[in-house]
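Quick one: co-fold with glutamic acid.
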Amino acid sequence: MKVVAKIGSSSLTTVTGEIDHGAVAKLCAEVADLREDGHHVIIVTSAAISAGLGPLGYGPGKRPKDAGLLRAASAVGQIALMATYKGHLASNGLMAGQVLLAPTDLWHRSRYLKSRGTLEALMARGVVPVINENDAVADDEIRFGDNDRLAALVAHLIDADCLVLLTDTAGVFTGDPRRDSNASLIEEIVEIDQALELAVGGPGSTAGRGGMASKLAAAKIAAWSGVETTVAQSDRPKVLREAVEGVAGVGTVFRPRAQRLPARKLWIAFALPPTGRIVVDEGARHALEQDQRSLLPAGVTGADGLFAANDAVELLDERGAVFAKGLTRWCRADLDSFSGSHSRDLPEELAEEVIHRDDLVMLP
Ligand code: GLU
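Sure, here it is.
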């Protein structure tokens, strides 16, 4: 099996703000245990920023707002973090290989394929890939921000069998267990719907940025990729093995969707940030949803955002609900000039479809 194990900053940082060597040692021993059975494990780790803040003079729980400082902290912390992984994997007879990814590495098809090739080459040689976001050069606007989404996209990238999100709670609860004593653990989630997203609430600790909302978003990407996700407590004994073996009560298990979205559609739906929105009428919505047609200019009633051709855009119905996402073949200015037009009235240089069927993903 191919397993992606993501561990968050809160599980890797001590109360005094240092790297928790015991936590890294435990994870590495668990990885070695699974390797002995022939499974491949890819670690997605956070805690570079939190590990770098102390050495730069920021006490525990103090996170500066300045993005440049956070980038600098990650550069200091990442080396310490990797040295820790290298040491603990080596004591288990394993070699670590660091891979730092930025969102753009997954947007551009050629880099996406290169990232996959590197991970496959590492696994083929028995090396344990240890991945983090490339925080030292991360763009303030364009970044994964938490590693949950990064881990889900990696699970998709390498066609993993399961994604394990290790955190400081036992899984997903019916409410916020820190505030609601009646909140209970949900052991299985078949479909992530809006009610669940609302119940689960926002981000958690100050050490990282994850929180349950981001676990849900990651589990959704994995589910659409046909990958099962388990959210479980990082300090639970044998947590990785139990998650891989599907032991009852290990945490919260998200079942994958029966139909796996093709790689290109998944990439459009979840990896690319939308740069604009296009509003369509009811007839167009019906044609896209029921008849699997392309979006033509005749069905467009409005747009916002400054998008160019080949940008990702969201599609909204006339009530303002987002129901699809796609790559537009038209820029905003052309759409403003020709929306509502019949195809035969378009200038020759314009594509007939605003969004071609192959570039369109219907969202639930
Ligand atoms: N990639 C970040 C890290 O390793 C994650 C979380 C954060 O923004 O604090 O530190």
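If it helps, Confidence is low (pLDDT under 50) at residues 202-208.
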